[in-house]
Amino acid sequence: IGTSTPSARIGGFVAQNSGNITNSFIGVNASTETHSNVYIGDGTGDNGVVTSYPFRLCGSNNIAGVSYSNSGKIVSTYSNAVGIINTSLLGDDDSLTAGFVAVNESSGLISNAFVQGNNIQNFRASEDYRIESKGNMGGFVYTNSGEIKDAYSNIVIKTNSKRSGGFVFENSAS
User: How far apart are CA 83 and CA 12, in angstroms?
Assistant: First the structure.
C-alpha cells in the first residue's frame, strides 16, 4: 500500500477546460438574483429539481470556482455567491485554491468574468461566501500564463499562506 495522497482537482463546472465555456454562471444569477438549478431524473418525466444555491465547493488539494485549469476560452462567465473551502492542511505547499481558475495556461483566455461574494454593501462582500484555504490562494486565478481581460474579484479571502494574492498570485503573461 502506497503512502502518497492523490492530488484532487475540483472545479465548479469542470476540473480541466480545454474547450469553450460561454455565457455561464455558477451560484446566483447576477442580473436577476435567482439561483441556478440542477435537474435530476431518469428521463421518464418524473424529474426533480435540486437547488444549487446557496452552496459551497469543499475539498482538499486543488479547487477553483469554475475550472481548476484552463487552456481554452472562458468568456462571459462568473461565480457569484459561492463559498470555496480548501480543507488541505497548513503547510501543504502543493494545494491551490482560486475563486475562478487555479491555473490559466499560456493558451488560456478568460474574458468578461468575475468572482463575487454576496450581500455587497459599500463595495464589499460579506463573509457569508468566501474563499478559504490554509494553502496557496488567488482571489481570481492563482497562476496565470495566459490572458485575462475585463475581469474582477470581489470576495473575502481567508488564508494562512504567504503565497496568496487578491486577484492573481503569480502572473507570467506578457
Answer: 11
This prediction has a pTM of 0.77
Strand partners, 130: 156
The answer to whether the beta carbons of residues 143 and 170 sit under 8 Å apart is yes
- For residue 103, CA distances in Å to 13, 98, 155 come to 15, 9, 19
Mapped onto helix, strand or coil, the DSSP state of residue 148 is: strand
46-69 core/surface letters (b: 16 or more CB in 10 A; e: else): eeeeeeebebebebbbbbbbbbbb
Contact of 54 with 34, CB cutoff 8 Å: no
Specify the higher pLDDT residue, 95 or 151.
Answer: 151
Q: For the chain, how big is the Rg over CA atoms in Å?
A: 16
Q: pLDDT (tens digit, 9 = 90+) per residue, 85-103? A: 888 776 666 788 898 999 9
